[in-house]
Amino acid sequence: MTTKMITKPQLNFWQIWNMCFGFMGIQFGFALQNSNVSRIFQTLGADYSNMAILWVAAPITGLLVQPIIGYFSDNTWNRLGRRKPYFLFGAIAASLSLFIMPNSPTLWVAAGMLWIMDASINVSMEPFRAFVGDMLPRKQRAMGYAMQSFFIGVASVIASSLPWMMTNWFDISNVAEPGMVPDTVKFAFYAGGVVFLLAVLWTIYSTKEYSPAELKAFQEAEDKDYIEDNFIARSAKKYITGGLIWLVVGIASFALVALNVEKLDKNLFILAGGFCFFAICQLVAGLMAKNNSKNGFAQVMSDLFSMPQTMKQLAFVQFFSWFPFFAMWTYTTAAVTDFHFGSSDVTSAAFNEGADWVGVLFSAYNLTSVFAAICIPMVVKYFNLRIAHMINLFLGGAGFISFMFIKDPTLLIISMIGIGFAWASILSIPYAILANALPAKKMGLYMGIFNFFIVLPQILAASVLGFLITKVFDNQPVYSLVIGGVSMVFAGLLTLRVKEPEYQ
Q: Is 420 a member of any domain?
């Protein structure tokens, strides 16, 4: 007996609200991480030269975790559902990490906690992206991702401002003894742990996932209209050849950095290590292909090299769009405290005033993103997805570059308005295009692979930004934001190459 072809019913506003609400908790934790971890690192003794290498744990974790979680969530069903188990267990682990992180006794403990915290956030986050594809028909997915962007903005505004609020509204001290994290940051992280868990629990409680039989019927109905690119499986020979080439490049890079470490920078070892890691992955995939091995790793590697054309084009846009944000999350505290407040002494009142102001600035771009998330669907009606995205990326690029030219820290709010529009666009438009370009049965896996092109620019930034700041720009971290702005403008130009998917 065959399953009748049916299409997904449209959900009403509150149903979409409930299914996306958990993303507010995820972003609450993510925003606290992005706006405060550099401050914690500096408090525990980090400087410009090792800041990036400490942060690299986060993108590497995402690189490993998201495709794995995507693959397993595509193939999971238990009494909690398909995606919900990953929401729940990720939320529990992330909440515990948020309580522990600000109490780290040493710098390397804090770096380890960042690794754990980011892994936990990723376990919850990736299935939420695929969840929209699971639950919504094609014409409602743009709204679903815009709703996620809305919650991202709301959560980030509150979370990023919490230390400043606690100082200015509740008179909690934002200065601590050397080597100690201020109480304002600690209490903010405790609040984040509670909000993260409760928000995810609300989505789990309020939203029912479709059964395997229903999903199968929906997938058959969607995929019959899907025009798949010609698929040619990558041969074992190509895997092994590519792996050997990248291995040579990686070893040569290691040697070059090691022999010139004083002239270059130790962070460049990260880039060399990335080349070697990619080489090893290809060599392992080649051996599996030779032996006809079938497992999650083999599937990820196969689909990585056979991405739909639209996804390949979007990958370049994502790469140059996310590079600036890693620069911002890593170096804005150092840039603003040094360039705009004139202090790099973590125990000084000026430094901590500047660090608190960075939280406000982060709130500003996230508050703007809330407004932008509402505006973007209307803008798309007059243009198309690609042009709307390009405009927003240009605004973001201008915002980043303006940090160099605006001296008054209060006026940096204007810079953050442009960055906020770019942020809202990055979190919605690429996913709306991508979800409609993917086969339904592989939604989670491809969303996880798409994350590579968010993670890879972060690893590149961790590798080169420290070198550029210390060796080229005379320890002035504000230049990292200017470089990020140029990258974002280039990403905007690349959107013109993206072709939206076609259907029969």
A: yes
